[in-house]
Design a protein that fits this description.
The complex is a heterodimer of chains A (213) and B (546).
Chain A (H helix, E strand, L loop, with lengths): L21 H32 L1 H8 L4 H26 L3 H31 L7 H4 L3 H36 L9 H26 L2
Chain B lengths: L3 H6 L14 H5 L4 H29 L10 H20 L2 H14 L8 H23 L15 H4 L4 H28 L12 H33 L12 H35 L6 H14 L15 H29 L8 H24 L1 H7 L3 H31 L5 H28 L13 H31 L41 H8 L1
Helix pairs in contact in B: 3-4, 3-5, 3-6, 3-17, 5-8, 5-9, 5-15, 6-8, 8-9, 9-10, 9-11, 10-11, 10-12, 10-15, 11-12, 12-13, 13-15, 13-16, 15-16, 16-17
Classes of the chains: A mainly alpha (213), B mainly alpha (546).
Bound molecules: protoporphyrin IX containing FE (HEM) and copper (II) ion.
Protein name (chain B): Cytochrome c oxidase subunit 1
Catalytic activity (chain B): 4 Fe(II)-[cytochrome c] + O2 + 8 H(+)(in) = 4 Fe(III)-[cytochrome c] + 2 H2O + 4 H(+)(out)
EC number (chain B): 7.1.1.9
């Protein structure tokens, strides 16, 4: 067992109380990610139910989404998953500078994703397509549901991107402050895992909304 | 007393702070699992009392037909708040957050949980959720009136403060998830040397299985609640039939959580029972592995039966009989436990102390609750009884008669360990008796009324129910008196109770090997476990230890 006491690296604890357990920390993170998957699972379930109920209208509505922006965002997010992995690899190889660089790039990609998303949503809203709008309420139920789900699912995903950015910024701060070091980088790894999950969920959202037409 | 030496030598966790603060901050910012467990104890007990008071008020309204003390809308908000408080603030977090926090690490020989700071965060997330419920009472629109199930479409249409109140439930769910993650990791990572899975006390097993349900089920209610909030705010249509949505989908999502949630409520209680019975029967538990495995079985099968709450909501016939069948299957592992407990007591030399009396009361009440559950799980009878007082009686027997009584049992069982003092036995035992009488008056009458056709969540009733309603209300007073005596005794004993030794009951799990109250780090040296958890031959060695 990896229950070794590392005395004195946290001063608000009495020495014997401090323990560091990297495996435990990662186990905890995996369990948390599992709950996130289940959270989105509920929505995927709703999507499946309604897609089954209104196959034609879902197809028609999906054609209105901008596949170009969707694809671009997919590429951006996939790349960001790579950079965060590189950042972890860099700190393992004791290259702090590269690690910081890669992590910053990840944040930049995340912001790019959100900017794209913003324009995409705004374009739709300008066309009067948003929940409760007259334009949308005039359409058949299947389309109302499609766009409803579109806003809710990409919106919740967007919220996760946003939270991810905050987490990554904290990691950046820890890296700079030497709180994340070549022999203590579990925090960064866990943040990376979270970021991969955000990416992974998008990988499912993308075909469901943009590609199946 | 022989333990005097131990007590002087080591400061206990009350005397020694885990952080750099002293006074109140040493509690509010503590990362010690015992202190956090106690903070939960005080907070949760507070909400329990609030919930009880609301329950009594409802019963008072129902003492006579027609309007008695409140109007119909107030009644609607009260049964909603009562349900929300009792479910989300009391019974779901209750045992794991209080006794799980306090005793799970000790019972596996650990110094703390795996993530002490996360543990503190869970507590504050819980408090935040409770505060949100409180705020929702006063915002414009008034307190929520949908019932704790928040059924669509009413919960979208109601002009009361639904969003805030259910967001509170979301936040409370978050706390529950974090606690679950913490416990699973703790059990996997921090068991003392020699503490294999099959040497873990059964309370640990039960809490462990519960933690998995918390992790797997809670996110589903989380998303369901978020969808309702979004639905109310933006009119998205996901559940709203007017926009093509499906209210039944809401019910599925709701019960996929809320059925497993009843196992979050009951499993830890079963774990406590499996601790108390061997201790007071002085016998190894019968069928240790069967009990441990049945916890996991309940956790697993419990996922497959949610739709028995929806027999009358318009599912297909096939779905209905399948869910009815599955419901019967989940009764099996619960039955296994009850038989094992009884077998343990058989030929044991029983010492009927207060915790044991609570357990006896539990076995009676829980069996009634469980058997009537089968009546509700049967498709044909449920169609007659759905949404009547029969259901209300059933779930109070299971939740209150089951988990509630075990909450009290646990409180009495571990009281000396947590506070280092004994309570007074006589009033404690009187409280058990009064509770049992009051409880059955209060709720058994509801079985009869339900069977006769009295619907639940009704503010008024026909004259033929008047006598039974009256008996029920009088029962609620006796019950309240019992709770009052019990709590009064415990609170008085905090200061005036006789000092307790390390092992007042002759228990053998690890918490009885350390002083009462435990020292800050629980164990001076992490113990090496060599015995089976309920091996009473250790008692002799333990006497020599102290
Ligand atoms: C002195 C104690 C209690 C009294 C007098 C009491 C009384 C009541 C009454 C009168 C109702 C309304 C029934 C209806 O019209 O449908 C009710 C509902 C309920 N009670 Fe209790 N109860 C008590 C304790 C508890 C406890 C300990 C729990 C949980 C552990 C609990 C959980 C519930 C729930 C979930 C509901 C359903 C609320 C709803 O319909 O939305 N109660 N109770
Ligand atoms: Cu159920």
């Amino acid at each position: 067992m990896n229950h070794n006491s590392v005395a004195g690296n946290e001063n608000n604890h009495t020495a014997a109380h401090v323990h560091r357990d990297d495996v435990g920390a990662k186990l905890g993170m995996w369990l948390f990610l599992f709950t996130e998957v289940l959270l989105f699972g509920g929505m995927f379930l709703a999507y499946a139910v309604y897609r089954y109920q209104y196959p034609d209208q879902f197809r028609i509505a999906a054609m209105e989404l901008n596949t170009g922006i969707g694809t671009l965002n997919t590429v951006i997010l996939l790349t960001s998953s790579l950079t965060v992995a590189l950042s972890i690899a860099a700190i393992q190889k004791k290259n702090k500078f590269l690690s910081i660089l890669m992590l910053s790039l990840t944040v930049v990609f995340a912001l790019m994703f959100m900017v794209n998303k913003y324009f995409e949503w705004m374009a739709k809203i300008d066309h009067g397509i948003f929940p409760g709008s007259e334009e949308l309420l005039g359409r058949p139920n299947g389309q109302i549901l499609f766009f409803g789900l579109y806003y809710v699912m990409t919106g919740l995903h967007g919220l996760h991107v946003f939270i991810g950015v905050i987490v990554l910024l904290f990691m950046l701060y820890f890296l700079i402050k030497n709180d994340i070091t070549p022999d203590n980088y579990t925090k960064l790894e866990n943040a990376g895992l979270y970021w991969h999950l955000v990416d992974l969920i998008w990988i499912f959202l993308f075909p469901l909304f943009y590609l199946i037409q | 007393m022989a333990n005097g030496a131990v007590a002087i030598e080591e400061k206990n966790f009350y005397q020694q702070s885990t952080n750099k603060y002293s006074g109140i901050l040493s509690w509010l910012l503590t990362t010690d699992h015992k202190r956090i467990g106690l903070m939960y104890l005080y907070t949760i007990s507070f909400f329990f009392i609030v919930g009880v008071i609301i329950g009594i008020l409802m019963r008072l309204e129902l003492i006579a037909p027609g309007k008695t003390i409140m109007d119909a809308q107030t009644y609607n908000t009260l049964f909603t708040l009562h349900g929300v408080i009792m479910i989300f603030l009391f019974i779901v977090p209750g045992l794991p957050a209080i006794f799980g926090n306090f005793f799970l690490p000790i019972q596996i020989g650990a110094r703390d949980v795996a993530f002490p700071r996360l543990n503190l965060l869970s507590y504050y997330v819980y408090v935040a959720g409770a505060i949100l419920v409180f705020i929702s009472l006063f915002l414009p629109g008034g307190p929520i009136d949908t019932g704790w199930t928040f059924y669509i479409p009413y919960s979208v249409r109601s002009s009361t403060n639904v969003s805030m109140a259910i967001f509170a439930a979301f936040v409370l769910g978050f706390s529950s998830i974090l606690t679950g993650i913490n416990f699973v990791t703790t059990v996997h990572r921090l068991r003392a040397p020699g503490m294999t899975f099959f040497k873990m006390p059964l309370f640990v097993w039960a809490t462990y299985a519960t933690a998995w349900i918390q992790i797997i089920a809670t996110p589903v209610i989380g998303i369901t609640i978020l969808l309702v909030i979004i639905e109310r705010a933006f009119g998205v249509g996901i559940f709203d039939p007017a926009l093509g949505g499906d209210p039944i989908l809401y019910q599925h999502l709701f019960w996929i959580y809320s059925h497993p949630a009843v196992y979050i409520m009951i499993l830890p209680a079963m774990g406590v029972v499996s601790e108390i019975i061997p201790t007071f029967a002085r016998r190894t538990i019968f069928g240790y592995k069967a009990i441990a495995m049945s916890s996991l079985a309940i956790a697993f099968v419990g996922y497959l039966v949610w739709a028995h709450h929806m027999f009358t909501s318009g599912m297909s016939d096939t779905a209905r009989w399948i869910f009815s069948l599955l419901t019967f299957i989940v009764a099996l592992p619960s039955g296994v436990k009850v038989f094992n407990w009884v077998a343990t007591m058989y030929k044991g030399s029983i010492d009927p102390q207060t915790p044991f009396l609570w357990v006896m009361s539990f076995i009676v009440l829980f069996s009634i609750g469980g058997l009537t559950g089968l009546v509700l799980g049967s498709l044909a009878t449920d169609v007659h009884l759905h949404d009547t007082y029969f259901v209300v009686a059933h779930f109070h027997y299971v939740m209150f008669g089951g988990t509630g009584t075990i909450f009290f049992a646990a409180l009495h069982y571990w009281f000396p360990k947590m506070f280092g003092r004994m309570y007074f036995k006589k009033p404690a035992n009187i409280a058990v008796l009064l509770f049992f009488i009051g409880f059955n008056m209060l709720y058994f009458t509801k079985f009869i009324m339900g069977y006769m056709g009295m619907p639940r969540r009704y503010y008024d009733y026909l004259p033929q129910f008047a006598t039974l309603q009256e008996i029920s209300t009088v029962g609620s007073w006796i019950l309240a008196l019992a709770i009052f005596i019990m709590l009064g005794n415990l609170i008085y004993s905090l200061r005036k109770g006789p000092k307790a030794g390390p092992n007042p009951w002759g228990g053998v799990t690890l918490e009885w090997h350390i002083p009462s109250p435990p020292p800050m780090e629980n164990f001076k040296e992490i113990p090496t476990v060599t015995h089976e958890p309920y091996d009473f031959s250790q008692l002799k060695e333990m006497k020599n230890e102290s």
